[in-house]
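Try this one yourself first.
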């Protein structure tokens, strides 16, 4: 039995009684495979599985045949959020460890971005509302390392520490936007023996003012500048890193604080000649990092928006799913993220493959060899 299917088979079935026509393993695997192949609704998943019954029977027992769309929906509504997350997290961690052994990157520092996303069109008790989740994304590999839900009447500040607790972060740099710039979160990251790069905005007004004063009164210990140009605009970003913390009130309350950073972005519109200047500020804990290294961490944080959230919305149609009951929206979002990981791993194994994600999903729809490679390629190479 393939490792992915074995992992699924170990999940706890939330259904009670003896009248279960379909095995939980069959249901979950069909959903994962169908999503990889481009399906996004329960009806589409049922249709895909019905047209590929022979394919699924190679791997599954299917005592009840192909489940109905209602069955898929009902089971995903009942599935434990925590159990489902644990399974995917273990699989992704195995992918990461295998890659590190193959490439010899065990000692390499990774940039891990933590950010939130709202799943629109979810619901509860038949009424539409939005589910907000926080994800950890490794930009270098494109792996979604973990996800946790922001509970109702709460916010990311309470969800982020839970996600941090669940991950192995030692030696890596964690970047979070201004919502996560909190003393408790900084302390949590240091306790995990990791480094932080935290954006500072008006929610930390005094800290923001103190960093601005530092940049005005002190000379930077390290400077890095980069320029890019596209769409008729030239942008120059200058990263200035300051180790002098005497202007930071209560600096000792920020566990591990080693430096502050000012990023100045100057934009020049070629056609109009208009110039604009924006500044952003950060606190960092790695006292040995240069301005160029911090620039890399800050750039990598954009990846969670451009390479994860945007892809989920545009390629996987996450916000159009309308899965409105129980744990359905959150559990399905985990399938989407895992499907994205599988497809990116497929592209990594086939170096030089310049095919958009959407087209790869289309190939998996009509070519089960491609679908097999996406689903099982990681383990087939390492038997």
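Now uncover the answer:
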């Amino acid at each position: 039995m393939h490792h992915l299917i074995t992992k699924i088979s170990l999940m706890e079935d939330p259904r009670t009684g003896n009248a279960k026509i379909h095995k939980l393993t069959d249901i979950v695997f069909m959903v994962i495979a169908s999503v990889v192949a481009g399906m996004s609704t329960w009806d589409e998943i049922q249709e895909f599985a019905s047209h590929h019954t022979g394919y699924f029977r190679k791997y599954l027992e299917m005592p009840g045949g192909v489940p109905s769309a209602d069955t898929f929906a009902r089971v995903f509504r009942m599935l434990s959020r925590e159990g489902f997350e644990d399974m995917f997290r273990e699989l992704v961690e195995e992918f990461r460890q295998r890659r590190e052994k193959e490439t010899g990157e065990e000692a390499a520092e990774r940039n891990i971005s933590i950010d939130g996303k709202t799943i629109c069109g979810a619901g509860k008790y038949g009424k539409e509302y939005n589910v907000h989740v926080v994800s950890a994304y490794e930009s270098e590999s494109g792996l979604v390392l973990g996800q946790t839900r922001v509970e109702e009447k709460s916010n990311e500040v309470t969800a982020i520490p839970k996600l941090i607790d669940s991950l192995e972060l030692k030696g890596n740099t964690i970047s979070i936007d201004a919502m996560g710039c909190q003393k408790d979160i900084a302390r949590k990251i240091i306790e995990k023996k990791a480094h932080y790069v935290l954006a500072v905005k008006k929610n930390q007004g005094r800290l923001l003012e103190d960093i601005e004063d530092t940049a005005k009164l002190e000379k930077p210990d390290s400077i890095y500048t980069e320029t890019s140009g596209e769409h008729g605009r030239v942008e120059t970003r200058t990263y200035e890193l300051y180790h002098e913390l005497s202007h930071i009130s209560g600096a000792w309350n920020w566990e591990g604080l080693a430096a502050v950073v000012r990023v100045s972005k100057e934009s020049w519109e070629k056609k109009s000649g208009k110039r604009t200047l924006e500044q952003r500020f950060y606190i960092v804990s790695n006292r040995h990092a240069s301005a160029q290294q911090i620039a890399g961490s800050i750039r990598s944080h954009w990846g969670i928006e451009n390479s994860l959230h945007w892809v989920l919305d545009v390629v996987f149609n996450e916000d159009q799913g309308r899965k409105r009951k129980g744990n359905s929206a959150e559990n399905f979002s985990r399938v989407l993220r895992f499907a994205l990981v599988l497809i990116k791993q497929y592209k990594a194994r086939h170096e030089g493959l310049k095919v958009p994600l959407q087209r790869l999903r289309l190939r998996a729809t009509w070519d089960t060899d491609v679908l097999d490679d996406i689903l099982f390629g990681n383990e087939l190479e390492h038997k």
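Discussion: The chain has 13 helices and nine strands. The CA atoms of residues 232 and 272 lie 10 Å apart.
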